[in-house]
Amino acid sequence: MEETRKDRYILRDAVINKKSATTLTEEEKESAEKVCRAFDILGLFDRTGIIDKRHVVSFYACPLVELYENILGNYIEEKRLNRNRGKTLYWEVVAFYKRVKNVPKNHPGITDKDDWPNNPM
Fold it and tell me: In the chain, is it the N or the C terminus that has fewer CB atoms within a 10 Å radius of its CB?
């Protein structure tokens, strides 16, 4: 995931500039692809328990939710429609988002608690 830090910043800038999945530049589309691939793998690791769920949630759920709700969700749907790839394209990203979409409201910075709850999802 650290390898996608630059790409996540590029996508955050796209969100700030109110871009949609259909108005991304080629560089932004390339960044979206890299981030989707990385979250797809992370989602698989989370679902299968290869990486401890608490670690995944505390470090990556909030960035995923922010990016997914602002641009990646629409980007994935657009790709699915245009490529006739159906629901299998980036399935793990979508499934991972569905598992962690409520995590940001449990973030210690939001709740004013010292730590995450035992089940932040």
Answer: C
Given pLDDT bands bounded at 50, 70 and 90, which one contains residue 117? Answer: low
Two tokens, residue 51:
């990486």
* pLDDT tens-digit series, residues 53-72: 878 887 888 889 999 999 99
CA angle 38, 120, 68 (to 5 degrees): 35
Domain count, the chain: 1
Measure CA 15 to chain center: 13
pTM of the prediction? 0.83
Q: Which residue has the tokens 């981030």?
A: 35
Q: Is residue 121 part of a domain?
A: no
